[in-house]
Amino acid sequence: MKKAIIILTILAGLVGGHVSAQNYNQLYEQTEDGPRYINENEDYLDQDTTEVDSKTVPIGIRMWTIDKHFGNRTEVPVDTLMHQFQNIQFTDGLNGEYNYLGNIGSPRLSRIFFHREPASQFIFTDPYDYFIVPIDKYRFLNTKSPFANLSYFSGGNQQNGEDRFMAYFGVNAGRRLNFGFSFDYVYGRGMYNNQATSLFNGTLFSSYAGDKYDYHFLFSKNHMKMAENGGITDDRYIVSPEEIATSASYTPSDIPTYLERTWNRNDNYHIFFTHRYNLGFYEVPEDTSQHYDNFIPVTSFIHTLQYDNNERQYIAYETPADYWANDFFGSEYQRDITSYTSLKNTFAIALREGFNKWAKAGLTAFVNYEMRTYNMVDTLGTALERYDRKYTDNILSVGGELLKEQGKTLHYRVYGETALTGDEVGTFNVTGNADLNFRLFKDTIQLAAKAFVKRINPSFYYRHYHSRHLWWDNDLSKEMRTRIEGEFKSKKAGLTLNVGVENITNYTYFDNAAEAYDGGYRHNVRVSQCGDNIQVLGATLKHDLALGIFHWDNEITYQKSSNQDVLPLPDLTLYSNLYLKFKLAKKVLSVELGADVRYFTKYYALDYSPAIGQFYLQNPNDRIEIGNYPIVNVYANLHLKHTRIYAMMYHVSEGMGNSMSFLAPHYPLNTMWFKFGLSWNFFN
After folding, report:
1. DSSP characters for 622-644?
2. Full-model pTM
3. At residue 43, what are phi and psi to the nearest 5 degrees?
4. Is 441 helix (H, G, I), strand (E, B) or coil?
5. Which of 158, 191, 253, 417 is such that its CA lies 20 to 30 A from the CA of 486?
6. Under a CB-based contact definition with an 8 Å cutoff, are residues 303 and 217 in contact?
């Protein structure tokens, strides 16, 4: 109630004020078709970002992302809209496609297979893609006036609530040089015991866009700490509380969990610098009264440097007896520590697209050299003879890219790379995408296609991992993955249809190796490979309807895995949003009032292992199905000049259906509570 009063007070004070509407480094972008995740590995269409609302963002502001290999810029629209603003803080995603552990910022995994990113070399940060913004998704800007954004989101109370604060600032020093920083802090106290999350990111960025020389620079520092509770000890507390042998009422904090005084901690920092020198010529304008020439680049010499430093700790001061199958070092060994560093240099030469009428596409050739170092514990034979072991790898790879991004009708990109030395020798990656855009019956139609063929060496930690409870050194075969996708999009009909199929050989995954004893099962994890081919078929239909102030947005995904025991997927994943959209107060206040629902069919979703911080198969002798449970939220979105605000009653469907309110086995969702968020801009 107190927070609701605060919201109304702030809103009243902003009726004539000058504050903001947008955080520009969220994991989504605002397209002409509405918001979408920017980590979906999709290419952007050519879009005009020069025309923006001067009452919302400064005139002349432009934003773009860069290619992490060569520093190529991709213009992205400046988001001034409010649609789905209420969902941007959900760990389960804008459209609820992710499984996670119930608390904000906890590890997550997409239920939609085609949206999953491949495992990185430091797999421990992969489940935190809600929070970590990849290099090629970070938003640079150029602005005529200093620009700042502040955003704050909150829910629950002081005992079990969640808070997030974000800041973004950018300023130009002249027309071409820009500096800025961003800040992001997430704190989730956790509704259930031993569940708190604390995430921090600070990033410095700079860019220079000259005719002959340009650069982009990023320095990012991340700290992520999560308390691990191992899930609740008995699902009946949620599913059938009447079966619990007590007459007393209880709160979520009263429900026992497996672990306490146990944490996973990830600390990392990254340095990224890409720059190029362009050879070309100045095109003299036909109108000689103009006092400037247009520079046409012909050839670019490109250098990209990337340095990553990562450390992960698993900290357990208390571990219940018979919880883990193995305890290699004993209780006096309370920290598992592993670290990974990478220094990568890319040198490239590019023949630029469009420097004459015959140059219909750009061509780039490159060479990569990467030095990787891994550190983890090892023994000389006994648990007491511990020492730090170092693994090193030096990887040389070559490749090329064919790119066409100019024009409005046809765009395509073909990228190829193969490794010549190191553990990655024999691997390759050939990726291509294309889109065709045309007018048909007063509608804008887009036909797009994506495809790749990859031979992948499983990430290092699938091959080697040493810790107190888990230990393996595996000789794994390389994965072979082939995928093709097609997409049809109609702007006028608000319709998008995507269909894809993938074949995987030697699929590598975390398997369950639980050991039975009289009281249940002792937890254990191993790495397995499926030698047989696995096929995944996926189709997503998105349709947005509008009739006056009434709007109904729907997205449904159908999937089929040929091996549900190894790669389990739900048959259907659904998001539906029904809302009213209108304006008040002389049309200066935009309002959305509605309710949305997230739903997926039952399946044996992956379990979560605290010891490695990864999702893995459930125990085949003791597994449960989750799903067939609707998650319904009721909300109001308001957009007043430079300010966005939302208020929401989260999880109003609590107790409906089968009461299986889990997005991961044994990790219940938070109960019904109130959430709100504010976002505002500052500029001259």
Report:
1. S---B----EEEEEEEEEETTEE
2. 0.88
3. -80, 145
4. coil
5. 417
6. no
Diameter of the chain measured on Cα atoms: 90
Phi, psi of 123 (to 5 degrees): -65, -20
Instruction: Look at residue 382 and give its three-state secondary structure.
Output: coil
Yes or no: say if 507 and 462 are a contact pair by the CB < 8 Å rule. no
pLDDT band at residue 170 under the 50/70/90 scheme: very high
Angle, CA 664 vertex, CA 526 and CA 652 arms, to 5°:
175
444: left (phi over 0), alpha (psi -120 to 50) or beta: beta
What digits encode the pLDDT tens for the residues 33-69?
A: 333 333 333 333 333 333 445 566 667 788 899 999 9
End-to-end, the C-alpha distance of the chain in Å comes to 35
**Domains in the chain: boundaries:** 2-683
CA 67 to the chain's CA centroid:
17
Both tokens of 394, joined, read: 């030096």
Classify the C-alpha dihedral 574-666-620-611 as positive or negative. positive
Residue 480 has pLDDT above 90, yes or no: yes
Overall size of the chain counted in residues: 684
Burial per residue of 600-615, b for 16 or more beta-carbon CB atoms within 10 angstroms, e otherwise: beebbbbbbbbbbbbb
Structure tokens at 145: 């006036």
DSSP state of 232: B
Residue 31's Cβ-count burial label (10 Å; 0-12, 13-18, 19+) is: middle
Phi, psi (rounded to 5 degrees) for 164: -145, 130
SS3 137: helix
Q: Give CA–CA dist 486/606, Å, rounded.
A: 28
190, 250 Cβ separation under 8 angstroms: no
Residue given tokens 């697209």 in the structure block: 353
Amino acid in position 38: I
Query: Which conformational region is residue 308 in: left (phi greater than 0), alpha (psi within -120 to 50 degrees), or beta?
Result: beta
Q: Find tokens 């009422």 and name the residue.
A: 249
CA–CA gap between residue 238 and residue 195 (Å, rounded): 17
CB-based burial, 528-561: b 16+ in 10 Å, e otherwise? bbbeeebebbbbbebebeeeeeebebebebbbeb
Distance CA(503)–CA(485), nearest Å, equals 12
Q: Which of the 8 DSSP states describes residue 352?
A: -
Residue 682 and residue 519: Cα distance in Å, rounded?
60
Specify the amino acid at residue 610.
Answer: P
Amino acid at 667: Y
Kindly tell me the burial class for residue 351, based on how many C-beta atoms sit within 10 Å of its own C-beta (0-12, 13-18, 19 or more). Answer: middle
Indicate the DSSP class of residue 111.
Answer: S
Can you point out the beta strands (E) in 24-161?
Answer: 28-31, 34-37, 62-66, 73-76, 98-100, 108-110, 140-142, 147-155
- The class of domain 2-683 in CATH terms is mainly beta
Q: Tokens in use for 447?
A: 């036909």
